[in-house]
Specification:
By secondary structure, the protein is of the alpha/beta class. It is built from 8 helices and 5 strands. The chain starts with 18 loop residues before the first helix and ends with a helix.
């Protein structure tokens, strides 16, 4: 991990965006019904970082999008600890009733917390989730897991994360989902990135993730209008 002589703040962080700048990047965004399903990563769970606002990425992004679409409807049903099966069983119906036009879906980190994960089964469950999500007609978004997310009790953890990220990228490509790839993002090297639990990004990381979501969707908008 690297350290800096002067701690970053939201104003000085090169990967953060002000609300004004982020909203300008999303000018003309058509989305009026934004939904988030999944687990603690979807929820934006994390400890407060000095110098950063006390919000997770998903609430931050909803606030930004609301500057573009003031009447934005926002639903977040994410539950800490939820697996992809939990999401399928307990969150899909509510999401479909909501009728999103922009939908964030999980990338399965809790599916890795088994003694021997069955990646064939994980891919099958994730594919079903993508199928049901795609039926809404919404633009789909997802993350890949960052390198900083480590569970030391599993000696093969890095390989687990890489395998799951490969599944995520493949399914996202198949279903036209926007991937915000956090695995190799420079933020992973920050010594204050993780919360006390050493799993979740603190709000400094959440702010960066919100910024990367804005950049990814701004790029999508540019492709649509070019």
């Amino acid at each position: 991990m690297t350290s800096t002589a002067t701690p970053l703040t939201e104003e000085t962080d090169p990967f953060c965006l002000s609300t004004v700048d982020a909203a300008a990047m999303l000018s003309g965004a058509p989305w009026k019904r934004y939904a988030v399903i999944g687990d603690s990563l979807s929820a934006g769970t994390g400890d407060k970082s000095v110098g950063y606002g006390d919000q997770g990425w998903s609430d931050r992004f909803a606030h930004i999008l609301r500057q573009v679409q003031p009447e934005l409807a926002y639903l977040n049903t994410a539950v800490i600890g939820a697996t992809t099966v939990d999401t399928l069983q307990h969150q899909i119906d509510g999401m479909r009733d909501f009728g999103p036009d922009l939908l964030h879906i999980p990338c399965g980190p809790n599916d890795l917390l088994r003694r021997s994960p069955d990646f064939g089964e994980i891919e099958q469950n994730m594919r079903r989730m993508y199928e049901l999500a795609a039926e809404t007609g919404a633009l789909l978004t997802t993350f890949t897991l960052g390198r900083a997310y480590v569970v030391p009790v599993f000696a093969d953890w890095t390989e687990r994360v890489r395998t799951l990220n490969d599944i995520t990228r493949s399914l996202a490509d198949e279903y036209g989902a926007v991937v915000v790839d956090m695995y190799d993002h420079p933020v992973n090297a920050r010594e204050n990135l993780l919360s006390e639990d050493r799993i979740h990004f603190s709000t400094s990381g959440q702010a960066v993730m919100a910024g990367e979501m804005v950049r990814a969707l701004a790029a999508t908008l540019r492709r649509r209008t070019s």
